[in-house]
Amino acid sequence: MQKLVLYVLLITASFGFTGCFEILEEVNLAADGSGDLKVTINLSQSKSTLANYLKMGEFQGYAIPTVEEMEHEVGRVRSALRSMDGMSNVEVNSNFTDFIFEVKGRFSNVQVLNEAINKVANTLNRTPFDILELDNFDYTGKSFRRYFNYPLTVIDFDEIPSMYQYMLDTGKMVSIYRFDRPIRVCTNDDARISPNKQSVMMESTIGAMIRGERTIANSVVLHSK
Amino acid sequence: MTFIKRTLPLLFICLSFGLFAQKPVDHIPSDVSLAFSFHPEHLNEKVNLREFQQMGFYQMLIEQMGQMAPPSAREQITNAMADPQSIGLNDMGDAWVFSKFTADATYFAVAISLSNADAFGDFFKQMGGDNLKLEQQNGYSYFQPENDVAIGWNNGTLIIAGSDLKEDYWGYGIEEVPMEEESWEDYEMEEDEEMIEEDEDTLMDDTPEEEEFDYDAYYSEQNRRQMEETASWAKMLLERSFDKSIQSNSKFAKAKSNDSDFNFWMDYAALPFLEEGGGYGGMGMMGSMTSVLTGLYDGMYMNAGMNFDPGQINIDMDIFGNEQMLDWWKDSYKSRYNKKMFKYIDGSELLGYLHVNLDVEGLFEGYKEMFMPVVESFPGMGEMAAAGLDAIGIVIDEEALYELFSGDAVVAFTGMSEFTKTVTTYEYDENFNATEVEKEVKEFFPEFNFMAGYGNEENILKLVRLLEVTGLAQNLGNHYSISIPDVPGAFYLAMHDDILFFTNDTELIGSRLEDGFPKDRRMSKDQCKAMKKSASRFFWDIPNTISMVSSSGMPFGGAPGEFLNIGKQNFESLSVTSSSKIKDSASTTFTLQMADDETNALKQIMDLVNDMVMDMMGGESRS
């Protein structure tokens, strides 16, 4: 799902919209490794600007896809996920008025989840290059791991134009993982554990991630059931 | 008596020396195309220039530049930069950079005042070493290190001169033979002459081999010419073997009447791309167009003088035109300003404005008179185009067009409008369960007011009616609402007091159209006076703008934020004003007003640069 996020970031960065955006990633994990995933990409704070761009049809020499074209891509993502073994109850929703997009589904195990993310990235890939296929999650039965091995830090943040810096520093990434057992410990110091000890939340701006100040990589060690 | 016999001649010689030591300006010929000058003595009367040499960043700069020199010369160069007087340069003497453009070459030179030619000579010899081939000519020393650069100096002036010859591939090696004019009708075919049909092979065999272009010989010749031209130019400047100096050039003398710290003068007619039928103009269509354009610039020259004054940097620019151009400017600028516009500008949070005050008829009639010949000069199409334009004039009522708008207009930015919009976000309970909520967030959009005076209300109403019928404007009584899809805020159109308004200022439209803003919120009298007396004026309130932008919610942290802060603290305003009074020139004044209106502006800027650099480098501000 991180790849999808990066893809969205690349698109929106090239549009150069002003205002914040929010990416919310939620994973509910059962003891047997199955669970639910929901990713929400919320661009509503820039909805008027985005609506203008859609009407313009072109921005800084780049053709802006129409709503129909983007709905078509949403449909392709939906079909790709639904065709995967181990994925069920897949829903992909798009709202081109408020510019809120949602992908959710049930996975049978964490490896299926990783494959689903790679499949979505490949489906959306329009570059001549292959997508870097990495695992985003891992589950051993005792610990749940969120990886973040994408080379964001090779980007020189200071080289980015200041308007995009502002956008990346106000764009928020929130990860929430929920378990059916209490959490013993997390390795990421920025992670917050809920009072009921069954949820962990991390927030970061994209800018902080590019600068290497923060990461959403985390290992969550769980108590035995 | 012996004493007098011996000392008088010596005194006379010293006096003569003093009388005849030439200043740099005496070495500039009158036919140069442009000249830039720096007058440190004039500036030093206002601010102590030598104080800048004690600044930390200046010392650091000297050290760094010294490091770039070879180790054997490092100390000498560092000392020379720290104290130019020590190597004979007159740091309070005028310095000039000038250039002359011709069809064949560009000549340029720097002329710097010397206080001690011997000291300079010693320094030069030290730098040059044993390989230095210094010539002693008629009262000056001379050295040509390269084909395109020569250096020379006499008792009072150092000249660094150069030239750049145009490439001449096509002319190289070709002897020009005058062609006799011959008409084909004069050609008589001889009786036994007949057309011979040759086959292709024969033709190919008869084709002479092309000679290869000898690039080595060409460049060798170019280098030789370059060397000669540079030497000739440099020696002419040093010996002053030209008819008159630039001070005798009437255009220069007229333009540069006031002393300034820096000065730039340019003769448009002497620029090569405006030379009639010249190489830049080209042949055929382009050549004839260039000829017409050349006529427009004939007799035109400009002068700009820059002064660092207490609290201000001023640049006064004058463009001197030929009769035709002056008449056009006079006709364009003889417009009456609608003073009622002043009451509709909210000066309490003014960020800036741009205003123009032109006579529309004078502007367009003059434009037609000047540029119709350009259109007509197009070979083949020109006459047709001109006739077409004349025919269009039958249908279009030019008088009505001229009366539509009176020529005075202003766009003023008077603050930031705040808008709220609804966005979707998420709230989390204590166990991080997300709930979608709607929130109102503030957005900011610059508040502006565009006003244009109109002459014929009936015709303006026809245009407004057109907007209404197309659905772009909605009639709300004494004004119209204009819809611009997905742009935040509301826009309005109104007509009142012979002024057409287009604005997003809801207060102006809602309650200020009758009487304008209260007097305590209007622009200052100085601002109003400046607008009334000018043909155009641009004004920018720097700290106000920065404050408004900062309060708009956009986080300007880091370097951009610091830069904005510096701007807000040190600068007050920027204005560019073009005078409506035309005598023999059109004048424009640029003024950068500093926040501190007492200290000399150059000192303020140097202090600022010094503080910024030393802050970055972590050094001491002063040595």
> What is the β-strand count of chain A?
13
* Poorly predicted ranges of chain A: 1-18
Q: Shape of chain A from CA axes?
A: globular
Structure annotation, total helices of chain B = 19
**How much of the sequence of chain A is in beta strands?**
25-35%
User: How many DSSP helices of chain A?
Assistant: 6
Sheet with the most strands of chain A?
7 strands, mixed
List keywords for this structure.
heterodimer, A: 225 residues, alpha+beta, 7-stranded mixed β-sheet, 4-stranded antiparallel β-sheet, 6 helices, 31% helix, 31% strand, B: 623 residues, 20-stranded antiparallel β-sheet, globular
Structure, explained:
The complex is a heterodimer of chains A (225) and B (623). Chain A has 225 residues and is α+β, with helices and mostly antiparallel strands. Chain A has one domain (2-8, 20-222). In chain A, 31% of the residues lie in helices and 31% in strands. Chain A is built from six helices and 13 strands. In chain A, strands 5-6-2-1-9-12-11 form a seven-stranded mixed β-sheet. A four-stranded antiparallel β-sheet of chain A has the order 7-8-13-10. Chain A starts with a helix and ends with a strand. With 623 residues, chain B is an alpha+beta fold. Among the domains of chain B are: 21-167 and 216-297, no CATH class; 336-358 and 405-583, no CATH class. In chain B, 36% of the residues lie in helices and 26% in strands. Chain B has helices spanning 2-20, 40-44, 56-68, 74-82, 117-128, 200-206, 215-239, 250-255, 284-297, 323-333, 360-376, 382-395, 398-404, 457-469, 506-511, 525-532, 542-550, 558-570, 601-617; strands spanning 34-38, 95-101, 105-113, 135-136, 141-146, 149-153, 157-165, 262-267, 301-309, 312-320, 352-357, 405-428, 434-454, 473-475, 480-482, 491-496, 499-503, 534-541, 571-579, 585-594. Chain B has a 20-stranded antiparallel β-sheet. The longest helix of chain B has 25 residues, at 215-239. Chain B is globular. The two termini of chain B are 55 Å apart. The interface between A and B is medium-sized, with 29 and 19 residues.
